[in-house]
Amino acid sequence: MYKIVKKQELNPTVTLMSIEAPMVARKALAGQFIILRVDEDGERIPLTIAGYDRKGGTVDIIFQVVGATTEKLNHKKQGECIQDFVGPLGVASHLEGLKKVCVVGGGVGNAIAYPIVKALHEQGSDVTAILGFRNKDLVILEDEFRAASNNFIICTDDGSYGEKALVTEPLKRLLESGEQFDEVITIGPIVMMKFVTKTVQPFGIPCIVSMSPIMVDGTGMCGGCRLTVDGKTKFACVDGPDFDGYKVDFDEAIDRGSMYKAFEAQAREAACNLYKMEVK
Amino acid sequence: MPNMSLKKNPMPSQDPVERASNFKEVALGYTKEMALDEAQRCLSCKNKPCTKGCPVQIDIPAFIKKVAEEDFEGAYDIIAKDSSLPAVCGRVCPQENQCEKYCVRGIKGEPVGIGRLERFVADWHNENAKEAPVKPASNGHKVAIIGSGPSGLTCAGDLAKKGYEVTVFEALHTAGGVLVYGIPEFRLPKAIVQKEVDGLKALGVKIETNTVVGKTVSVDELMSDEFGFEAVFIGSGAGLPSFMNIPGENLKAVYSANEFLTRINLMKAYREGADTPIKHSKAVAVVGGGNVAMDAARCAKRLGAEHVYIVYRRSEAELPARREEVEHAKEEGIEFKLLNNPVEILGGEDRFVNGIKCIRMELGEPDASGRRRPVAVPGSEFVLDVDCVIMAIGTSPNPLIKNTTEGLDTNSHGCIVAEEETGKTSKDMVYAGGDAVTGAATVILAMGAGKTAAKAIDEALSK
Ligand SMILES: Cc1cc2nc3c(=O)[nH]c(=O)nc-3n(C[C@H](O)[C@H](O)[C@H](O)COP(=O)(O)OP(=O)(O)OC[C@H]3O[C@@H](n4cnc5c(N)ncnc54)[C@H](O)[C@@H]3O)c2cc1C
Ligand SMILES: Cc1cc2nc3c(=O)[nH]c(=O)nc-3n(C[C@H](O)[C@H](O)[C@H](O)COP(=O)(O)OP(=O)(O)OC[C@H]3O[C@@H](n4cnc5c(N)ncnc54)[C@H](O)[C@@H]3O)c2cc1C
Ligand code: SF4
Ligand code: FES
After folding, report:
1. Predicted ipTM of the assembly
2. Would you call the peptide bond into A88 cis, given omega within 30 degrees of 0 as the criterion?
């Protein structure tokens, strides 16, 4: 059992938790993830390692409530335990040697982007962070990002905060103005990453994307997380989650992510109903 | 006077129609009367041909004699000398290729039902034996076991009984390896595996689940002062699924057998209201002919599929699955499309599978494996209407441990190189066994390898 030592609501649907998991904290690196189960018979879901404290033995996760399991997780209180927590999984982001980087995040993907921005900042890289959210209420980690980036741009779909734009717009502007990045790293909804890649491509700058397919074991045993990269099948949990954006078959990845849509909608409703009953 | 019936006592089983829609155990086990009657069929051959066919050389005539004498605990003690998992092996061993293949009663008629008797004895012991395992005094030596499949559990048990302080590290959240994530409940009830694991815990074995060696901690770290393990046994299995690399394999509702079975067995997706989803399909094609394919097909049937096809490129005689599983699958209505090979998986606009294109095969000249090589018949393609495809064409060892352990040699198939007589690898005080060494094989071989390594580790550490 793994104890929730801290719980903090970042916005109405995004929560940060610090979990006591010294073995994971010991080895965690930016870009890696964990897999957890909230309770016995729960589903295994992957979440990125948003931070870690090696001495204190804790690992931070930031999650958006999107379905049954994240809903259940969000109902756990500080001091309570979750059943399983395994990691660190996946290959850490390759950040060595990068001097000037643009990190483009969208929605809860920003939570995944933050540890990368932080690691880049700590190694002395010049970081431009472009964050996109649907609206002002959903903005997360703004202060943290500001503190770790040299250039910070925030945009919302509806213009309720920052620039009214999609992340690709300021990105294109910067690239056209002649900004020379060693690399663009993008993390967020697959469609967004697809268009970020398209935006960067004419400029000949490497573009790394962080893929989040449906996973089960996270160790290369099931193949459920497979993607086509450069015409070859890759397992995101062991070969990724970071891949060369120019080589990823995004459309296939979008399809595969929708495999259980009907089940998920039903499961979420069931989970919500359960909690409603508890409240009464 | 021996029982000269040419036939084995049949195994009482759940009715095929009924069981095709539940996950309860299919084979119900011999009653005492059946076991006694079956044991009478054994001729107590002096040269013990059956024992020679057993990968761990259980003294088969001796245990059967004890059964005939109604000394079931005595029979158990004889089996337990060579096998740690009789309740498992009695259920899943391919007896027709091992002990029973060499039984002289099989020359004219059916061999003695050795597997069924083994299961009877083990189940009798599990139900009736009183003595609880006690933790022996520690000898102060620490050993780490990687993986909790049959090889790891066996190695852990044998060492713990000798007083070693054993910790088993398992990547998944439940111990048992393929016995819990692969082989379905209706063939091997999970309670049996849990009992084995609980027995180890009573012996003082620590089981650390959620620990991926190579990620959470490396083999070298385990052997460093920080953790202080003096020896390591790697029993990490052969869990990496293969795909065919044909068009359409990444469509929705194409599963590896590992994923399909893991969702069902480990994650309990077959239960109403489970958190983990699984696709309930109308018609399913399972590609492959081994135990894994049979298990996947029979699970798909139990989830409600009207048609489940086994698509296998060779003929019935070459099916690598246990005979009993093939028979059970047929009884449950699984349709065998033998001498067919998939060439493409077809999908609709929604990118879900809607068919599998196969080509007919003929058997040609024998190949390297000695089996006749299947050759495609040109122009014989046809489409099977299915909405789900499960690939059960084999697995190989996961490269994670190899890639993170300095000085650990593997062969061209990614299998860890280990001495057969000891399990010793190229790395000092690191031993390995089971599927991680042999590639996908059997429970009994993995169990045997765990025993062999435990003995060698004990010899090395007690020097
Ligand atoms: C490597 C990786 C890192 C991730 N990091 C984060 C993170 O830091 N924060 C965060 O909020 N989310 C993250 N995700 C996504 C997160 O795993 C899903 O939101 C979560 O699984 C949803 O589960 P649910 O039951 O609440 O929702 P569901 O209703 O089951 O699913 C909602 C959506 O989540 C996806 N999903 C469902 N089950 C899984 C699964 N087992 N594995 C992966 N995706 C699934 C599906 O595409 C689905 O459309 C990450 C995913 C991956 C693969
Ligand atoms: C569906 C199916 C049906 C089968 N049916 C039969 C049958 O009827 N009869 C028969 O004899 N055999 C059968 N087999 C084969 C048999 O199950 C295997 O040969 C046997 O389980 C191998 O045992 P093992 O101990 O080597 O490894 P496994 O049982 O594979 O266990 C390995 C364990 O190690 C863990 N692991 C892997 N990597 C790591 C790591 N890096 N860190 C920590 N832990 C790790 C895995 O999670 C797993 O739990 C079947 C196999 C399958 C898949
Ligand atoms: S070969 Fe058959 S008859 Fe002979 S001892 Fe073995 S089980 Fe008995
Ligand atoms: S999640 Fe199972 S192989 Fe990647």
Report:
1. 0.91
2. yes
